[in-house]
Predict the 3D structure of the following.
Amino acid sequence: MSDSCFDFHCHSLASDGALTPTELVQRAAEAGVQLLALTDHDTLAGLAEAEQAAQAVGIRLVPGIELSVGWGSRELHVLGLGFDRQHEAMLALVQTQQQARTVRAERIGARLDKAAGLANSYQRAVSLSGQEAPGRPWFAKMLLQAGKVRDEQHAFNRFLKQGQSCFVPTPWVSLEQAVVVIRRAGGVAVLAHPTRYNFTRRKLRACLTDFVAVGGGGLEVLTPGLNPQQQALLAECLHDFALHASGGSDFHTPKQTWLELGRLPPVPTDMPLVHSLIGA
């Protein structure tokens, strides 16, 4: 299998994506992806459907998840790849994360009722998403549907992003807790989209020092839109911390054409890939 035919970071309707797991897998296959990880936010809900769809179209599905974690005062995202999705520790962690998401969603809804002049904002987002713990993108969709914002980005800028009246911080599990559970479940932990945290070079290296110390094994370096300076920094970190490279589109919706499934940068021939850690 060609190393270029993979995508280890994407989302379905099971979290905040626009496509069902089946539709996402079919789209990935049409894009030439042969090895796919569905990494919905803090949930495994889409994996069974995605596995069935993957078998139907002849591609391999790697069990995946994107966990929100705390590192100091920062929120980071860690991908779990290749784990046993029935593992007791993983199921317990997902339950904890979903409980935290539900509490956050209820609080966001209560704040939006006041700030946006709505009633039953939480229930509206639940109905729209089909989830008990809808994330902020679903509240953005709800606000747009209610005619309170121009578009979904306006919803974030006016109400939902950090610093705005309806942003609610969440007590996520720690970086260490998440990595330990991923490893106990037989998977590999990958730090997702490291360039999106607005880290300085020194801060990124401090983060990776802690990540590796608790058992992190991969770094997401093959993603759309990186500039040459970012690519050089991530290549340096791969080497210095003996991490394996992962890559993914972070696909959410066909509307984001710059984040299309399987559209990853070429893989340098000397780059160690996370494939070897998950038996792919």
User: Anything to note?
Assistant: Residues 88-115 form the longest helix (28 residues).
